[in-house]
Amino acid sequence: MKKLLAMLLCIAMVLTLGSALAEDGKVHITYSYWGTPEEAAATQAVIDTYNASQDGVVVELETIPNEQYTATLQSRAIAGTLPDCGIMNENGVLDFAANGLLADVSGMYEGKDSQPLEAVTFKEGGTTPVAYSGCAETLILYYNKDMFDAAGIAYPPSKVEDAWSWDEFIDVAKQLTIDVNGKHPTEEGFDPDNITQYGCVVDNWTWQLEVWAHSNGGRWFSEDGTECVINSPETIESIQKVADLTLVEHVQPLYLGLADEGIIRSVASGTVAMATGGAWNMGTCMSTSGINFGIGVLPYMKEKVTLTTAGPQVVFSQSKHLKEAMDFIAWYTQEENSWNLIETGVWMPLLQKYYEEGEAMDTWLKDEDFPVKDYDMAKSVLVDYTNAAATPTCWYYTPHTSEFIDMLRSVLSPVWTGEQTAEQAINDNFDALAETITDF
């Protein structure tokens, strides 16, 4: 079936879309997107600005749910009805590029004063750039300042050199976990079945778990993306440590990792003291949650690591309006033209200069609308941490990760409930997991 899909994707390249001009005499192109209502509103505002800036092109926003995004684009590729351009789920980029479904954007930053961060550049074979993320995002730690103040505990560190070890993180989480009788997990009589405040959530939305493999000295895939190595002892141990936050330490609520809502169900809900999540959550939910929140660096197992990711802005090769679509994407990916997404904390800037040059950095972090008002905290977590500890998520260099991650999500479900250990689940399913990146 995978080989048939690949063949159909190639055949679909010859199919065409629509007519040349609409009745208003303008070229209409579609830009596909996923995200929360807040993200969609911000994106629409950027598109409105573009539409008002010239007379020949109208960009129309098409929203597709995140969970269905890659599958929807795959179906539409076969039907020859892909949008003209859009953001993509990261896990589908290398597959689309290999099948000729993405237009060449390799020259997009030629002659520019700065280049995209290396950690958000998609590379075929681990070396050849085929797409660039439209922004940069990292995994960070969110926390409820009021809960820490009530417990008399110092806030999580914002500097990478001060990052908590995994054991230190668990110790603090225990102090912040409270049952109905006001007891903590370290106290006699603690009731793990009746917890009113949890100390932490380490998001087990599947792709985010990769950061702990790196942190524990393991990997999901070899550096060139050709071999699955998720069965290494270090990687298996990292998964078990996350599960044990619920099963053994009683500091984290049970969750099966079936939806991308870790921050929403934890710190933003007012029921959890601290949680891991993407930097985009500053703008998508935390700034409107009413929670007095702060941000910090992730704890670490052996190595201090954060993952980088963000959907690339691409032009689909099926478009009949490649020039217009390319012009829009080139315009859209300039920070000044999507600044409302950056200043509100939904996006982190893409270009290196915003992480290296003081003036560019200040335009971002000192913007009056930026949701984290503590400049030193923001710089430490979003700039210094990115420079020191960022590593690309596997889909930047490994093909077919969509199939791998979907399967891994199912494989790990019994680990979160304690029905299987991580070692049992991974070893029992390793051959099938490994085949997802080779049998295509």
In short:
By secondary structure, the chain is α/β, with parallel strands linked by helices.
The biggest beta sheet, please?
A: 7 strands, mixed
* Amino- and carboxy-terminal Cα gap: 9 Å
Q: How many strands in all?
A: 13
Secondary-structure element series: HEHEHEHEEEHHEEHHEHEEEHHHHHEHH
What is the SS-derived class?
Answer: alpha/beta
Shape: globular
What fraction of the residues are assigned to beta strands by DSSP? 5-15%
Overview of this protein structure:
Helix content is 37%, strand content 15%. The strands form three sheets. Strands 6, 7, 8, 9, 10, 11 and 13 form a seven-stranded mixed β-sheet that branches. It starts with a helix and ends in a 5-residue tail after the last helix. The protein is built from 16 helices and 13 strands. It has two domains: 2-136 and 310-351, D-Maltodextrin-Binding Protein, domain 2 (3-Layer(aba) Sandwich); 138-308 and 398-435, Periplasmic binding protein-like II (D-Maltodextrin-Binding Protein, domain 2), CATH 3.40.190.10. Strand 4 (121-124) and strand 5 form a beta hairpin. The protein has helices spanning 2-12, 37-53, 69-79, 93-98, 145-151, 166-175, 210-215, 233-247, 281-284, 322-332, 339-343, 353-356, 358-365, 375-389, 401-417, 422-435; strands at residues 27-33, 57-63, 85-87, 121-124, 128-132, 137-144, 178-179, 195-201, 272-278, 293-296, 306-309, 313-315, 390-392. It is globular, with a radius of gyration of 22 Å. Helix 1 (2-12) packs across helix 3 (69-79) and helix 15 (401-417) runs antiparallel to helix 16 (422-435). The protein is an alpha/beta fold and 440 residues long.
